[in-house]
Design goal:
heterodimer, A: about 325 residues, alpha/beta, Rossmann fold, 2 domains, seven-stranded mixed sheet, five-stranded mixed sheet, 13 helices, about 40% helix, about 20% strand, globular, B: about 280 residues, five-stranded parallel sheet, two-stranded antiparallel sheet, 10 helices, about 45% helix
Chain lengths: ~325, ~280
């Protein structure tokens, strides 16, 4: 199967749902990068470039949503969720409008552009906003399903998309793969430890499964594509059935997937848990592969953490 | 405008001011100064300009109104209550737990509110989005109106919004600037001067007029100019010279009344002044 970035899957899915005249798309001078340019090509009368002014873009989209439109808003995750954070809170989430913030270039794999463009806090920030649903798809096929879920369901959505073209986990882009909003997808069942990952880290976790299997460890892997509302049942079940958990995210370990899983565990089914993620640091320039190694986000890092978590079971 | 029409508008404004004081006094907090400075503009909007129906407040073809200076919600609530969007007596519960009249406008729970506002700068952007929906997507004839504060013009987002409205040629959009010259910390010119605001709005591609924001004949002429301007491709900016606290003698032009409720004695004086005005206009 060929590699495809989730941002490209987003652009192609916009072309698919764009026949609906309620769909409008906003971008802030990044239509080529975010892939909204694909929608612009097919539906120019419903595409609006707002220039490099993300705050105004988000609030304009909110205004348009009050007029019955489903407004998709795109920029790099850095600028969509942090420059325009308060507009998302007060003009989108508070009035609970149909604005779908689909932001690309999230995470460390942005690569050479470096820290100013590597957004590592978006899941944490978006997750804390009332009325917001937060999705972080793992591959192109599931990204298409995530964008369609955002389109089909009412209210504010944040969909985290990546720059890097990555392998398929679910299937080829365009297939109606198994993706249920709010339900973790079990990539592989197992009994010794549960790895819960999101986004590009699912691919890394698949690599970790191979390492662990070669050492006789039978790990479960959940793709937690819906960060909010998070699938509590799957987390509690993982705790009870495998006894320890490792979370993996291409994001700060503060406030993101790891925090969301920990919140469920401590209140419901405490068990040893370790987190793989960027440790309260900024990113830096480098190739995506170099950065994944530098910040200890590789399959080998996940496998190490899994073994440590198993040891903590005592 | 006939003398009778003018008198009707003055009476509606006086009643709005009476409800602004009633609401803020009962809430023991709120923003009377700015509410009173934009009362006449909002009065004219709801009595003459806006094609809205209190019995069908979500009509997709209605004109839109966004109070970008959301802290002046008491003025908006007074107009909506007096126009029957809800029982005007609810204003006595302004800001109280359980009331649908929040400290700042909340679209989700208050009939007649087109957009939640309160965080300055965002309202005008949402109004731009509504005007884009009407003109560029749905090709409908509704218009979009917004009232901004002068302190609000210090927000960078306002200038992003002005730029985008001109870029998309939104001549269905009209912004009223409630230019009372005062903000929380004092005079706008001392805190952060707006400079030549008319020249700036023009430079951003808007058509402009400057009026007395308490004179209904001038508000009407601005509205007529806006209508005449439709088709030009330029959004319309009305700079309204106003007085903070207008209509209550001791609040007028005093920045101290930006965000402060009257004590009982002050409430009694304000009510006596406004009741006298209402009686005079009714007489």
């Amino acid at each position: 199967m060929g590699k495809m970035a989730t941002r490209e899957a987003y652009g192609r899915t916009l072309q698919e749902i764009g026949a609906d005249e309620k769909v409008v798309v906003f971008d802030a001078d990044l239509a080529g990068s975010t892939n909204t340019g694909r929608f612009k090509k097919d539906f120019p009368e419903r595409f609006f470039d707002m220039g490099i002014a993300e705050a105004n873009m988000v609030a304009c989209a909110a205004g348009m949503a009050t007029c019955g439109k489903t407004a998709f808003v795109s920029s790099f995750a850095m600028f969509a969720t942090e420059r325009a954070c308060e507009q998302i809170r007060n003009s989108v989430c508070y009035p609970k409008l149909n604005v779908k913030v689909c932001a690309s270039h999230a995470g460390i794999t942005v690569g050479e552009d470096g820290a100013s463009h590597q957004c590592l806090e978006d899941l944490s920030i978006m997750r804390s906003l009332p009325n917001m649903t937060v999705l972080c798809p793992a591959d192109a096929a599931s990204a298409r399903m995530a964008v369609k879920a955002a389109y089909e369901n009412d209210g504010p959505f944040y969909v985290r998309l990546a720059r890097l073209a990555t392998d398929s986990v679910y299937g080829e882009f365009g297939e109606d793969v198994d993706f249920t909003l709010g339900k973790a997808h079990m990539v592989k069942d197992g009994t010794d430890v549960t790895i819960i990952a999101c986004g590009y880290m699912v691919e890394q976790a698949v690599e970790a499964l191979n390492i662990l299997e070669s050492e006789g460890i039978n790990a479960r892997l959940l793709d937690m594509h819906t960060i909010k509302p998070i699938d509590k049942d799957a987390i509690i079940k993982a705790s009870k059935e495998t006894g320890c958990i490792v979370t993996c995210e291409e994001h700060s370990i503060i406030g993101g997937l790891g925090s969301a899983v920990a919140e469920v565990l401590v209140e419901n089914a405490p068990c040893p848990m370790l987190r793989v993620g960027v440790k309260d640091q900024f990113g830096r320039s480098g190739t995506p592969a170099e950065l994944m190694a530098y910040y200890h986000l590789t399959g080998a890092d996940i496998a190490d953490k899994a073994k440590k978590a198993i040891a903590l079971k005592g | 405008m006939t003398p009778e029409q003018r008198k009707e508008l003055e009476l509606f404004s006086a009643r709005m001011r009476r409800w602004v004081i009633e609401g803020v006094y009962n809430a023991k907090s709120g923003h009377p100064g700015g509410s009173l400075s934009c009362t006449d503009i909002i009065c004219y909007l709801y009595n003459v300009i806006l094609n809205v129906d209190s019995q069908n407040p979500s009509d997709p073809d209605r004109d839109r109104f966004v109070l970008s200076k959301g802290h002046c919600a008491p003025a908006l609530y007074s107009a909506l209550g007096l126009k029957g969007f809800f029982d005007v007596n609810e204003i006595k519960n302004l800001r109280k737990i359980g009331s649908f009249l929040q400290g700042h406008p909340c679209k989700a729970i208050t009939p007649g509110i087109d957009m939640s506002t309160g965080s300055l700068g965002q309202g005008i952007s949402t109004a731009v989005g509504m005007a884009m929906a009407g003109k560029l997507v749905d090709k409908k004839s509704y218009r979009v109106f917004s009232v901004l504060g002068d302190g609000e013009m210090q927000e960078g987002e306002v200038w992003e919004a002005l730029m985008s409205a001109a870029h998309y040629k939104l001549d269905n959009l009209c912004a009223f600037l409630d230019y009372n010259g005062l903000q929380i910390d004092g005079k706008v010119d001392d805190v952060m001067s707006l400079g030549d605001i008319e020249a700036k709005a023009k430079a951003f591609g808007w058509e402009t007029v400057v009026i007395d924001g308490h004179n209904f004949d001038e508000i009407e002429s601005a509205y007529e100019a806006f209508k005449a301007n439709q088709g030009s491709g330029k959004p319309f900016f009305v700079i309204c010279k106003t007085h903070k606290g207008k209509g209550v003698s001791f609040m007028t032009d005093d920045p101290g009344w930006h965000g402060c409720a009257p004590k009982e004695e002050q409430y009694n004086i304000a009510v006596a002044e406004l009741d006298a005005k209402i009686a005079e206009l009714e007489g």
